[in-house]
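Worked example 2:
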Amino acid sequence: MRVRLIFGCMIAMLMSFSLLAQKDMNKADKLLSLKAFDLAIKNYEGIIAMNPDNAKAYAQLGEAYRMTNQPLEALKAYEKAFQLSDELDASYQLNYAHTLKKVGLYAQASSWYASYSAVDPAQADYFINSTEYAKELLTKEEKYDILSFDANSEESDFAVSFFKDKIVFASFREDLKRDTDKKNDSHINQRGNQLYIAPKGEYVSADDVQFLRPDFKETHNIAPVSYSRDGRMVAFMRNNFSSSSTHIFRDEPDMSIYFAFTNESGDFGDAKPFPYNQVGYSYAFPSLGFNGSAIYFASNRPGGYGGFDIYVSYFRDAHWSTPENLGPAINSPGNEITPYFDGEQLYFSSDYKNGLGGYDVFSSTVSEGQWSLAENMGKGINSPSDDYYFIVDHESGAYYFSSNRLGGRGKEDIYVAYELSETPDEELIVEVPPAVNLEDLAAETKAAQEASAPIVELESEGDAQVVAVSAKETVMYEEEAMFDFAGATFSEVLFDNENIPAANSEVYFIQLASLAQSQGLLGYYDAVGSYGNLYRFFKPNAVKIRLGYYNTRGEAEAILPKVKQAGFADAFVTADIMTVSSFELVKATNNNSFKPTSYINSYNVESQYKVKLASYQDPLKFNVEGIKDVGRLEQWTKGRWTIFVLGGFSTLEEAKQARIKAMNRGWSEAELVIDESGILRRVTSN
């Protein structure tokens, strides 16, 4: 009897554990359906910790990571799920294949698409062919120069539109605060995006960004917006976007379009709904055409070709016409979203048409009511990740679009693209100023700028030539008046043509801290000093303490666990552009094999003579492209000043010739300096 009782208790306990596990799984699944993805991930991870063999939990974890634009984490979860079970729903196979394609693993994606052929052979063949198309597309020549928008944040920035000479965009950024902001502790009803306005232009910093709407108006969950050409009218969408999740789900039920008139600042007043908004379906991503007399939009309303299709409606006789589906040349069994019509071409994004992966941008033209077969915009504009919200600035020739591609600064970033010129080099006409030599330049300077400009001349002392600087020298270059760069220390190589990040290219750091009211007690970070250089990045509202740099995300992620074990549990990998803002190297690694330090050491075997170009408090003002071919471009720092220097010369004569080239290109105050074991000095006579 006693044995039977014990056995019964064990059965009851097992049943209790099973019921509890199923309850936890149901809770996690419910959170996933509510799009509380971060909480769902934590719950699935908790289930896996209790039962490491739960294949369904791994598969659902993969789904949650996929929906939060974390494809690498999703792949790990999917892979583990399929290792544990070969009886999972076929939808996981398809989503695993899509995720492999989204990170550019086309061969593996093709293999999993082939496995899916047992469920749907036609669709499997279509996706297998799409991977072949993607590989072929990657072999094409580069068509665009792609730049990251300087004002991107570490959150999601997306959906550019134009208002007069300004750009308006949406963001989840946290570097600007409203007086009405309150802490939001909800993990389900998270605070939505806001609208921001900034100047148009090639260089737009975070300091240039302002809220579009005042505190007393509706400020969150509005985007994208589309202005009429004259700026008098705006169409906008009320959304339910989350900073950490994808923007579109096939069965999205509650996004809608509204119209309003604008004021002088681009803000808008009372809104009127698009008359075809429909409960249970979404009307989304409006784009006004023909100065507001037409609207292109995406909707999952019944009667389409797939999930979201693109439609057009015309404003006639004071009414919007019944929406017209743009047809199979544009729409597909997948999702077509974010249309933009510039009067001649329609641009939109699709997750089904042949592309590199995720959403790709396509273009089409219309003739006599018929749309041409949509064409992929090519690599650069498109990536294996999601690329959408494409729009054209015809004044500058710039293309703006948004992407969550790997290597970005935030969860989603805005990018600016320019078409590369196809003009042969021999046909280019370049005005080159006449060559000068230092003696002629000194004579001209004495005659024409006696009162204000520095006088530079070459003198000879024995076998060595040095630069003598006149006592009249009072300015150096633009904003660096009264600044003495003597004693500046080496910071980084910005351009060296081999194994060094080029200016404006992204490299990776491990962020250790973000300090709002301090520049950091640097001794606190000694525990990680062997893993990289220590930098202070001066951001608008904080000082970021970072370790780096690393040429690839993989290098940084390999170091990250060691950093966390050293006591920095909240450290994370982030990408940044070397010339985005002022920063300083505050502590070099004590690991001599680390590249930046070895570069510093290698300089000392070359000529110590270099050419100082200019000093700035805002390094964005420095034009890298105009000088990077003359020598190795180095960045030096002294306090908050950034000094740009040309190096890499074997002899003093090479340095002098580089100085002449720099002067010919507009760096009229370029001068010879000496690098004394990593300390910068002006070359003067004894």
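The CA atoms of residues 359 and 569 lie 34 Å apart. The mean pLDDT is 80.
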